[in-house]
Amino acid sequence: MTDVEGLLRTIRRLEQRIARLEGSPVQFGQNVRVDSSTDSVLDPMRLARETTGTAADGIGVGLPFYVQDASGNIDEGGNIDVVLTTAAHATQAAELRLGVLGTTVAALTSSGGVRLAEVTAPAAPAANTVIIYAQDNGAGKTQLMARFATGAAQQVAIEP
Q1: What whole-number distance in Å separates Cα of residue 157 and Cα of residue 160?
Q2: Is 11 exposed, middle or buried (0-12, 13-18, 19+ CB in 10 A)?
Q3: CA nearest 82: which of 92, 95, 93, 91?
Q4: 9/22 Cα distance (integer angstroms)
Q5: Residue 14's pLDDT band (boundaries 50, 70, 90)?
Q6: pTM value?
Q7: CB contact at 8 A, 96 and 104
Q8: What is the rounded CA–CA span in Å between residue 50 and residue 139?
Q9: Which of these, 80, 71, 86, lies nearest to 100 by C-alpha position?
């Protein structure tokens, strides 16, 4: 087979693959797996973090999301991180952390809780919504708050 024949054969194979993909809903960047089960979770992607050293509290893996801003800069808009807060195998504890603009704003803990970082009181949300947040009450105590579309903020609880 000559080089030209090999090239033509490769082109035909690529054309066949493209033809198969044209009818597919798969888009660039997607990771799709198909299986016959209809009542289970399928993991089409796996993120893993390993170390050549000994894992310590705080080791984790993350998935950052980048967006272009009005100036044309590509900035990290948010992230989802999974962190072992206790790395010892027998007593492992972890958090699924949600971050926005470089700040972790909430975490789901392996003990079943939700951790909220204290923030400055947010602006009123859109109609028919509420924002739940934690803030410092000015005396060093954390308040759990709810802000409504009217702008009214209601204390749900305060640190004893």
Answers
A1: 9
A2: exposed
A3: 95
A4: 20
A5: confident
A6: 0.71
A7: no
A8: 42
A9: 80
